[in-house]
Design brief:
Layout (H helix, E strand, L loop, with lengths): L4 E2 L6 E2 L2 E4 L17 H14 L3 E3 L8 H9 L8 E6 L2 E2 L2 E2 L4 H15 L4 E6 L8 H13 L3 E7 L3 H9 L6 E5 L11 H7 L3 E5 L43 H18 L3 H10 L4 E6 L4 H7 L7 H10 L1 H7 L14
Parallel strand pairs: 3-4, 3-12, 4-5, 5-8, 8-9, 9-10, 10-11, 11-12
Antiparallel strand pairs: 1-2, 6-7
């Protein structure tokens, strides 16, 4: 059985592997994920539970509650055995929709209906820019908690100032969901220390940088277009890009090559090393992995105990890339939505 990790000072005990359910799209492809049939999603959930994974992450924004609907069907009869995290917050293009208390209540109600449950274990603000007013947001989240409709609340993509503002307004979060992996380390500059200071557990999404750390891709052209929107890639790599920068394709694939070579020399799978490295960082509770097949999930659950020397060497492989990207943790935008 996979071990459990406490989120912050909450009563939530989660597995170090969390299933990211964005790709639970019921056969409807989007700009990031190809179509995934519901039966495939169910086989992934079945395998997850068999392996001891109890944590599933979804959101209102994933297919306009569509991911939640698919997840509920996949979990039929097993709701009480798992921890479900969901989020509120939509965007219209690049513009965030700001939610009032009434908007939050409606989004939560819609999520509960989609998930076919009467409570969500971890309800999160998707981006700080989705809050119309921080005090109003916290008051409403606490009210929903008192009603038993959410067990705990948290946030995603909150920077150092966002966290301070939230806490100054009387909020207390058990978790902060952030992009973090060997190729993307901006949170180490300021955000990770701010979380550690307040006992906020980090839930690391994109821990394999959308497959780049699986070892499958050797050059930018090998990567599916929908995954070339991040600042790792040139603005000209895809019409879906909106960061407007030259990217860092040469440096990114140089780093991937160095990590691959180190893993080969140490005789450890690259994806296992990458996931285990993230989980070895202080304050990280769980990594959120997206899976296309049960077999892929099984591989992602093969966590290993890295020696201090290997941990150090893996970090050194990406130190140059870390300094190049700097402290802006927004993978998709030159001007960060994270403050």
């Amino acid at each position: 059985m996979m071990n459990r990790v406490q989120l912050g000072s909450s009563d939530l005990q989660v597995s170090p592997i969390c299933i990211g359910c964005w790709q639970f799209n019921g056969g409807k492809a989007d700009e990031t994920w190809p179509a995934q049939q519901e039966q495939v999603s169910k086989s992934i959930v079945d395998k997850a539970i068999e392996l001891g994974v109890n944590f599933f992450d979804t959101a209102e924004a994933y297919g306009n509650h569509g991911s939640e609907v698919v997840l509920s069907r996949c979990l039929a009869g097993r709701r009480k055995d798992v921890i479900i995290g969901s989020k509120y917050g939509l965007h219209k293009g690049a513009q965030a929709i700001q939610y009032s208390a009434t908007d939050i209540e409606k989004a939560l109600t819609d999520s509960l209906q989609a998930l076919q449950t009467d409570y969500i274990d971890l309800y999160q603000v998707h981006w700080s820019v989705n809050m119309k007013d921080v005090t109003e947001t916290i008051t409403e989240l606490k009210r929903q908690q008192s009603l038993g409709r959410i067990r705990q609340y948290g946030f995603c993509n909150f920077g150092e100032q966002d966290i301070k503002d939230f806490y100054d307004a009387g909020g207390v979060s058990c978790s902060n969901q952030l992009p973090y992996n060997l190729l993307w380390r901006p949170i180490e500059f300021k955000i990770l220390p701010a979380c550690q200071e307040r006992n906020i557990s980090v839930l690391a999404y994109s821990p394999l940088q959308q497959g780049l750390l699986s070892g499958r891709f050797h050059q930018a052209a090998d990567v599916p277009e929908g995954r070339r929107r991040t600042r790792h890639f040139s603005k000209d790599s895809t019409t879906m890009s909106r960061h407007g920068q030259v990217g860092a394709e040469t440096e990114t694939f140089k780093t991937i090559s160095a990590i691959r070579e180190l893993c080969n020399m140490a005789d450890i799978p690259m994806s296992s090393a990458a996931l285990s490295w993230v989980l070895s960082q202080q304050g990280v509770a769980s990594v959120i992995v997206g899976c296309r097949t049960p077999e892929q999930l099984q591989e992602n659950c093969k966590l290993i105990q890295l020696s201090q020397d290997i941990q150090k060497q893996l970090g050194e492989c990406s130190e140059e890339l870390k300094n190049m990207f700097g402290p802006n943790p927004d993978m998709w935008a030159e001007t960060s939505r994270v403050h």
